[in-house]
Structures are given as structure tokens and as C-alpha cells.
TrEMBL record:
<protein>
    <recommendedName>
        <fullName>2Fe-2S ferredoxin-type domain-containing protein</fullName>
    </recommendedName>
</protein>
<dbReference type="Pfam" id="PF00111">
    <property type="entry name" value="Fer2"/>
</dbReference>
<keyword id="KW-0479">Metal-binding</keyword>
<dbReference type="GO" id="GO:0046872">
    <property type="term" value="F:metal ion binding"/>
</dbReference>
<feature type="domain" description="2Fe-2S ferredoxin-type">
    <location>
        <begin position="1"/>
        <end position="83"/>
    </location>
</feature>
<keyword id="KW-0001">2Fe-2S</keyword>
<keyword id="KW-0249">Electron transport</keyword>
<keyword id="KW-0408">Iron</keyword>
<dbReference type="InterPro" id="IPR036010">
    <property type="entry name" value="2Fe-2S_ferredoxin-like_sf"/>
</dbReference>
<dbReference type="InterPro" id="IPR001041">
    <property type="entry name" value="2Fe-2S_ferredoxin-type"/>
</dbReference>
<comment type="similarity">
    <text>Belongs to the 2Fe2S plant-type ferredoxin family.</text>
</comment>
<keyword id="KW-0813">Transport</keyword>
<dbReference type="GO" id="GO:0051537">
    <property type="term" value="F:2 iron, 2 sulfur cluster binding"/>
</dbReference>
<dbReference type="InterPro" id="IPR012675">
    <property type="entry name" value="Beta-grasp_dom_sf"/>
</dbReference>
<keyword id="KW-0411">Iron-sulfur</keyword>
<dbReference type="InterPro" id="IPR006058">
    <property type="entry name" value="2Fe2S_fd_BS"/>
</dbReference>
<feature type="region of interest" description="Disordered">
    <location>
        <begin position="82"/>
        <end position="101"/>
    </location>
</feature>
Length: 101
């Protein structure tokens, strides 16, 4: 399903979605838990704080914590990516443990 919503640049992405009837999962609303993580398919999103739930690699791959991200122009997102991000973080941590173990 695709849903388009209107917003001003600089608005919090989670709030914009919620006020437009797009209900995304969220828990901490501080960028720590990864519940709200989405992947940017198209457009630009800027984090207002560095989300602890995303590794540099995940951020480079286009994942964003929408609870601490602002809209910048038109944006298309793949939602409900929290479980995938948690899996990737666990695999990355496991690789690091074996590398140094």
C-alpha cells in the first residue's frame, strides 16, 4: 500500500505520518529501540539526533529512525523494518565478537 501525505520541510517524520493516519510502530521515541525504523526508498530525511539503534552501515544503507528524523522534501519509505534492523545489528555484533575472539 502506498500513501502520500503533505508536510512542511523540517517536520518530524513520525508526527507527520501519525497525524496523516499512517500509524508506525514506536516505543522509545528517542532513536534507541528501532521499533520505528524505516528504509528510505526515495528522498531525503535528516536525523535530529544520532539514533543509537542504527549502526553506521545501516544508516549508509538508508535506514532511518523516523521518531528522530525530519522530512526534507518528498520522501518514500519502506516501513516496519525494525525486526530486520535488529537482526542485522545482532549479526554485525556477532561478527565483531568472532573477529576479536
Amino acid at each position: 500500500m502506498v500513501k502520500s501525505v503533505q508536510s512542511r520541510d523540517g517536520a518530524n517524520l513520525y508526527t507527520v505520518a501519525d497525524h496523516s493516519g499512517v500509524h508506525l510502530p514506536a516505543s522509545c521515541k528517542q532513536g534507541a529501540c528501532s521499533a520505528c525504523v524505516c528504509k528510505v526508498v526515495e528522498g531525503n530525511v535528516k536525523h535530529t539526533v544520532d539514533p543509537a539503534c542504527l549502526t553506521p552501515r545501516l544508516k549508509a544503507e538508508g535506514y532511518v529512525a523516523v521518531c528522530v528524523a525530519n522530512v526534507s522534501g518528498d520522501v518514500s519509505l519502506q516501513t516496519h523494518m525494525g525486526a530486520k534492523v535488529r537482526q542485522a545489528r545482532a549479526e554485525e555484533a556477532d561478527r565483531m565478537r568472532h573477529k576479536h575472539g
